[in-house]
């Protein structure tokens, strides 16, 4: 559908949107510039869809908005004008885009085969003039025609303007009226001569007269079209301009009939009942018959192409400047020293973790490189094999080629939400391990925190960060904090690590005071405080951030890591049409937490990648956006760290387990699986699962640090059995920690 939209935009030379909807037919809204394609029961070929697009774009280019009003004023049936207008705009479109000729030919050929025009087993020579025109200009078929009909058919191709179309439509109505009168005269003469063959016509005329007396529509078509006429539904006035007396019509219908009656009484063009296109009506009926009424309606949203990342992202230099101005200057010396001691302690305790990660990474890279090594022949003879020339054709020396190592890269996203207050210290330690690992193996990296707090006290800044484009997702009050990057010096990196760590002691009670005897008295600027969880916005912006990062660092293998403690809040606002008090149209953010029975199609205009979602809330949205991200960047690895739990022990809540493993806590059949996962978490301190969109998803209880301590807790006068238990406890913990690290390294290497 994205390709169709792109083609439509190019053809129409404007922003035309192609969408599938539960519509009765293909159409083009001249106001919203939306090209609608119906949802069919059976899939139509690409030829048909291309023809639909070309046809409706033709209307967008050449059919004026006021043409419908002109038709009503003239009192001409819409189907008659539509047939001629279709021929006109298609001819003009094909002249402008000659390559579209085949699209029309193939598309109409398929529709003809499916009997969309209702002419199977019918003699097209007996169709009325407007149906002959419709079939000829759409399919090329033409039966026997009179010389006068031939001239009228040729005249269609000469229509250049909407006025020409309406004028010719009136001329066709007059011609049809003349034919009908001649037929009636002939039928009357034959009836008087006693020809039994025409009895039915006499009965038909009597019935027409009766209907006229009752105020009903007497406008019937010719021999073949009468069965397809919509006169009974329309209840329109008779050809002599007499208004019907049907009291069931609404005000709109009465007004339309009044206008038509007035026009006819003044000697204007014939009224709607005189000439109608049976094939055009059959086409509409066929479209309706092929519509899938049970299908979900569709909504189309886009990732904003105009998103200004420079307005959304705060660089590490700007953050350092703002923190130095508003936060770090308020540190007391005692607090600063206490935080520094904690930072040194964390660094020393995690040295072995980082060393192990580095070792495993290098080993796996080497193993993979040799696995991909290729053996090839050289142009030199292997002299040791020369003696075997009679039976050995492989006499050339061989060399082993090891492909160049892949350029790795890593981007990490940190949850900067209020619920992270109690988990932030532990999470930062995991983050610091990853940063130190990247520094050791010389992998380019970047760390962002996603926040909605920075502009909390300001108005939404939608227009500041993006252009107003219909159906684009909105991005008000969302920011990325670039806390770390490989471009920082070691001193800058350690300074930022220390300052972020100091913030964690402002958000939660800790053992800092107990250990260092310090009373917390500093404050954090409100714009850097914790807020909501805009994880979904962060994922949406990842493509733009990643594209720049990979280009600047020449990265081939990218690893994305999301560290969070909960689900994203819903992001479901988009630009849609609204009307002001004065009636002017404008775009404003519109949204809903649920789209009900609609399928939401979300597209990235830059790549054309599209995903379909049946829901627009939290975790389902996250899954959708991650799937879209993987389509945008097929060669990435996406890992998630879910730091769960609350309190110092931080057990993983039951709802987290159920959401990750798609289990129902109220279902008896799932209880055994839930209990198994809980036992695993208690034993291994980690649960690794496959969550949609992630390569691996690590669920970690809060407070269980991934580190290897070399200190054994041997107490004084401990017996050998106690020492053995302590040694086994340490070895077990070391093994479990390495299991997690091994899984992580395996994914990124």
Structure notes:
This protein is of the alpha/beta class. The chain has 3 domains: 2-191 and 218-237 and 255-295, no CATH class; 309-370 and 406-712, no CATH class; 372-401, no CATH class. Helices cover 47% and strands 14% of the residues. Helix 16 (351-371) crosses helix 17 (424-441). Mean pLDDT is 75; it is low at 210-273, 399-404, 704-712 and 730-737.
Core attributes:
14% strand, alpha/beta, 18 strands, 3 domains, three-stranded mixed beta sheet, 749 residues, eight-stranded mixed beta sheet
Figure out the total of helices.
25
Number of strands: 18
Major sheet summary line: 8 strands, mixed
Shape: elongated
Helix/strand/pairing category: alpha/beta
Beta-strand percentage?
5-15%
Domains counted in the coordinates: how many? Answer: 3
Q: Could you report the average pLDDT, rounded to the nearest whole number?
A: 75
- Span between N and C termini? 36 Å
Strand order of the largest sheet: 5-10-9-8-11-16-18-17
Percent of residues in helices: 40-55%
Radius of gyration: 38 Å
Please outline what is shown here.
The protein is of the alpha/beta class and 749 residues long.
């Amino acid at each position: 559908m994205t390709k169709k939209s792109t083609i439509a935009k190019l053809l129409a030379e404007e922003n035309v949107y192609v969408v599938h909807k539960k519509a009765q037919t293909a159409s083009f809204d001249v106001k919203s510039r939306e090209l609608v394609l119906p949802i069919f029961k059976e899939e139509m070929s690409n030829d048909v869809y291309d023809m639909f697009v070309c046809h409706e774009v033709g209307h967008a280019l050449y059919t004026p908005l006021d043409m419908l009003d002109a038709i009503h004023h003239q009192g001409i049936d819409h189907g008659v004008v539509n047939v001629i207008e279709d021929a006109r705009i298609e001819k003009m479109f094909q002249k402008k885009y000659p390559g579209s000729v085949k699209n029309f030919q193939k598309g109409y050929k398929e529709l003809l085969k499916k009997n969309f025009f209702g002419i199977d087993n019918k003699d097209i020579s007996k169709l009325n003039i407007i149906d002959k025109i419709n079939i000829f200009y759409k399919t090329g078929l033409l039966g026997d025609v009179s010389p006068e009909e031939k001239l009228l058919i040729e005249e269609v191709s000469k229509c250049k303007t909407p006025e020409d179309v309406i004028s010719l439509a009136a001329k066709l109505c007059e011609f049809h009226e003349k034919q009908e009168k001649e037929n009636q005269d002939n039928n009357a003469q034959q009836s008087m001569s006693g020809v039994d063959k025409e009895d039915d016509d006499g009965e038909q005329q009597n019935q027409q007269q009766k209907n006229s007396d009752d105020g009903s529509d007497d406008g019937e078509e010719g021999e073949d079209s009468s069965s397809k006429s919509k006169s009974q539904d329309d209840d329109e006035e008779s050809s002599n301009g007499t208004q019907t007396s049907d009291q069931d019509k609404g005000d709109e219908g009465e007004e339309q009939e009044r206008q038509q009656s007035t026009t006819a009484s003044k000697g204007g063009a014939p009224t709607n009942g005189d000439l109608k296109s049976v094939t055009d009506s059959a086409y509409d009926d066929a479209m309706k018959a092929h519509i899938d009424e049970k299908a979900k309606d569709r909504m189309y949203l886009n990732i904003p192409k105009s998103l200004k990342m420079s307005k959304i992202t705060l660089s590490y230099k700007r953050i350092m400047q703002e923190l130095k101005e508003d936060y770090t200057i308020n540190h007391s010396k005692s607090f600063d020293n206490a935080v520094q001691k904690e930072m040194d302690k964390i660094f020393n305790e995690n040295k072995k973790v980082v060393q192990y990660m580095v070792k495993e990474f290098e080993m796996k890279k080497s193993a993979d490189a040799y696995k991909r090594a290729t053996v090839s022949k050289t142009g030199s003879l292997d002299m040791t094999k020369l003696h075997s020339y009679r039976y050995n054709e492989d006499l050339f020396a061989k060399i082993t080629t090891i492909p160049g190592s892949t350029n790795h890269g890593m981007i990490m996203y940190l949850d900067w939400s209020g619920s992270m207050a109690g988990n932030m210290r532990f999470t930062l330690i995991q983050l610091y391990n990853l940063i130190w690992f990247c520094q050791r193996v010389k992998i380019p990296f970047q760390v962002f925190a996603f926040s909605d707090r920075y502009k909390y006290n300001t108005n939404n800044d939608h227009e500041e960060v993006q252009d107003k484009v219909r159906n684009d997702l909105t991005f008000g009050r969302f920011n990325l904090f670039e806390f770390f990057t490989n471009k920082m010096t070691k001193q800058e990196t350690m300074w930022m690590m220390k300052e972020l760590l100091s913030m964690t002691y402002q958000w939660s009670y800790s053992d800092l005071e107990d250990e260092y005897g310090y009373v917390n008295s500093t404050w954090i600027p409100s714009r850097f405080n914790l807020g909501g969880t805009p994880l979904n916005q962060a994922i949406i912006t990842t493509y733009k951030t990643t594209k720049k990062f990979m280009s600047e660092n020449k990265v081939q293998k990218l690893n994305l890591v999301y560290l969070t403690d909960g689900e994203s809040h819903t992001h479901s606002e988009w630009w849609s049409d609204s009307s002001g008090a004065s009636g002017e149209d404008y775009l404003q953010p519109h949204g809903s937490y649920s789209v009900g029975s609609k399928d939401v199609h979300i597209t990235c205009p830059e790549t054309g990648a599209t995903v379909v979602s049946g829901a627009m809330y939290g975790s389902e949205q996250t899954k959708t956006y991650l799937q879209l991200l993987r389509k945008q960047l097929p060669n990435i690895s996406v890992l998630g760290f879910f730091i769960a739990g609350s309190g110092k022990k931080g057990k993983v809540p039951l709802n987290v387990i159920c959401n990750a493993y798609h289990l129902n806590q109220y279902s008896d059949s799932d209880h055994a699986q839930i209990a198994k996962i809980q036992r695993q978490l208690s034993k291994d301190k980690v649960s690794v699962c496959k969550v949609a969109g992630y390569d691996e998803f690590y669920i970690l209880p809060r407070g269980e640090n991934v580190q290897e301590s070399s200190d054994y807790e041997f107490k004084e006068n401990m017996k050998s059995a106690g020492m053995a238990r302590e040694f086994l406890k340490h070895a077990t913990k070391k093994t479990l920690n390495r299991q997690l690290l091994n899984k992580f390294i395996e994914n990124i290497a």
